C-alpha cells in the first residue's frame, strides 16, 4: 500500500522482486564482506510471483479492514516543503542552497522513521517538519527569518529541542544496529521473528 501512494509508485512485481532478493543468500552476506552476486539465487519465477502477489493482496485487505479503510493521514514531508516556501527558502529560481535544504529536510524526516523513540507516533507532523527544517537549515548554512520562526507554526521551543536531539541521535542508533546484525540475518518472516524474540528473551533472563 505504501508503494502505491509514494512519489514513485511501485508495481507488485517490483515489490516481490525486492523481497525475493532480501530473502536470498546474496542480501544476507555481511555488508563489510561483499561477495559476487548470483542472480539465480533470487530469480522469481512466474508461478512464485503470482503466489506472492496473491499474498500481498490478502495482506493489504487485512490491513485496510483493520484500519476501517481510514487511510487519510498527514505526513510531515509535504508540510515541510510548504513551510520552506513560507519561510522564503524557495525563490523563483531555486538555488543550490535551497535545494540542499530541501534534500536535508527530507533526509531527516526519513531518518526519523527509524527512531526507537517512535517519533512519528508520539509527535505531531507539524513539529516533525519544523524540527527537520531547523536541522537542515543549520547544516546547509541558510538563515531563516526571525529569531524564533518555529512559533509561527505553533511549535514550542521545548518540543523543538526534544525532536532535534532525537533526530540527531538516530544516526548513531542505526550504526549500532548495523553492527548488531552483521553476524546474523535480519528476520524477514514469522518463523525467523519468533526465533529472534525467543533469543532476546533468553538474553534478558541471563
How does this structure look, described?
The protein has 206 residues and is mainly alpha-helical. Helix 5 packs across helix 7. 15% of the residues are buried. The mean pLDDT is 84.
Shape: globular
Q: Which whole number gives the mean pLDDT?
A: 84
Regions with little confidence, pLDDT below 50 for 5+ residues: none
Give the N-to-C terminal Cα separation. Answer: 40 Å
Care to count the β-strands?
0
Q: What is the chain-wise order of helices and strands?
A: HHHHHHHHH
Radius of gyration: 21 Å
Portion of residues within helices: 55-70%
Largest sheet, strands/sense/barrel:
none
Strand percent estimate: under 5%
How many separate helices? Answer: 9
Class from helix and strand fractions: mainly alpha
Short characterization:
The chain is mainly α and 206 residues long. Helix content is 60%, strand content 0%. The model has no long low-confidence stretch (mean pLDDT 84).
Task: Set out the fold topology.
Layout: H1 2-5, H2 12-22, H3 46-66, H4 76-86, H5 96-112, H6 119-122, H7 125-140, H8 157-180, H9 190-205
Amino acid at each position: 500500500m505504501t508503494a502505491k501512494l509514494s512519489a514513485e509508485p511501485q508495481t507488485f512485481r517490483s515489490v516481490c522482486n525486492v523481497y525475493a532478493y532480501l530473502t536470498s543468500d546474496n542480501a544476507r552476506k555481511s555488508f563489510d564482506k561483499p561477495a559476487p552476486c548470483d542472480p539465480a539465487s533470487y530469480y522469481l519465477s512466474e508461478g512464485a510471483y503470482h503466489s506472492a502477489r496473491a499474498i500481498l493482496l490478502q495482506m493489504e485487505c487485512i490491513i485496510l479492514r483493520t484500519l476501517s479503510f481510514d487511510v487519510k493521514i498527514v505526513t510531515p514531508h509535504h508540510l515541510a516543503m510548504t513551510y520552506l516556501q513560507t519561510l522564503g527558502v524557495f525563490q523563483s529560481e531555486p538555488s543550490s542552497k535551497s535545494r540542499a535544504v530541501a534534500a536535508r529536510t527530507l533526509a531527516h524526516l526519513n531518518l526519523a522513521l527509524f527512531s526507537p523513540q517512535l517519533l512519528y507516533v508520539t509527535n505531531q507532523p507539524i513539529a516533525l517538519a519544523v524540527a527537520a527544517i531547523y536541522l537542515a537549515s543549520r547544516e546547509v548554512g541558510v538563515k531563516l527569518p526571525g529569531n524564533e520562526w518555529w512559533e509561527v507554526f505553533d511549535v514550542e521551543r521545548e518540543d523543538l529541542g526534544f525532536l532535534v536531539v532525537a533526530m540527531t541521535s538516530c544516526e548513531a542508533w542505526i550504526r549500532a544496529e548495523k553492527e548488531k546484525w552483521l553476524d546474523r540475518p535480519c528476520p524477514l518472516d514469522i518463523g525467523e521473528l519468533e526465533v529472534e524474540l525467543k533469543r532476546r528473551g533468553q538474553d534478558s533472563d541471563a
